[in-house]
Amino acid sequence: MNLNRLTTFCRVYELRSFSQAAERLYLSQPTVSSHILVLEEQLGQKLFDRIGRLITPTQAGKLLYARAIKAIEEVDHALEEINVLRDKVAGPLVIGASTIPGNFFLPTVLQEYNRLYPDVSLQLRVSDSEAISRLVATAEVDLGVVGASSEESDLISQFLVRDSLVVLGREDVMGQPGDSGLSRDDVLKMPWIVREQGSGTRRALEQGLKEFGLRLPDLHVVANVDSTVAVLNCIQAGLGVSITSQWAADELAGCDFEIRGVDPGWAFERSFYSLWHRQRTPSSAATCFSRLLQRHLGVSDSTAGQGEEEHE
Length: 312
What we know:
There is one protein chain. The chain has 312 residues and is of the alpha/beta class. α1 crosses α3 (29-43). Mean pLDDT is 85; it is low at 302-312. 46% of the residues lie in helices and 23% in strands. The chain has helices at residues 3-15, 18-25, 29-43, 59-87, 99-116, 129-137, 171-174, 184-189, 200-209, 228-236, 246-255, 284-296, and strands at 48-51, 54-57, 91-97, 120-126, 143-146, 155-170, 191-195, 220-225, 242-245, 259-262, 269-277, 309-310.
């Protein structure tokens, strides 16, 4: 039922006058009469008895007024709350992240975000890039931060920042790669720890191997693990080497001087992206988080769309 017509009905009911209601609502009297007539046709009941110039509500009119006035008040309250939301960032915010952002740079952003917007209830879900993409696609998280763009038609991948990848390992396990980086023979000789299917890091490794004319099965793989933390622990234990983000490499190398990072060359690189559902309107909380994340990563307005991939 049209809210404008209900408002017109309530003014006529309260003022007992079509002309005064028209004046109060800045409408013409024929428009007011038309609104009441349409309501009566929809309900199949007369709402007012017209005796000369006297307007008297019928029983149906009295029943409708009692409900209509409450409905209008509820809508008014909702509009007030929506207007408050435009100025106040509050409510739940669920962020999905792959393991590198989730473990290494998002915690700092979350701490700053919580300081700025204490009325937002934060939740961080960490998994591999493919799993986070599925969570964004099914609206289980508000936005994702991942190490690989998504090919889901319902998702928008927005470039955030390039990721520098290094091959990390103990010196006694890695051997002595040349100063110019890894050779094909170096890659084949090393014992490798690789991430699970769906990981953005694994995808970057597979892409980089193509430059050497290699595939993942060509490597001497000693372990498959499902998190960056597990990779770092295996490296520290001397199990093998792995390719990982510079963020993770810096943390481990700073704690263990026997750990060495080697630049594998330009072929081993990837980017981080924010993921959004194409059909969902971002909340104020999500929009503010995205802006803070971009500032933290040094993303300017001119580079925020660089590398953006929209899959139709």
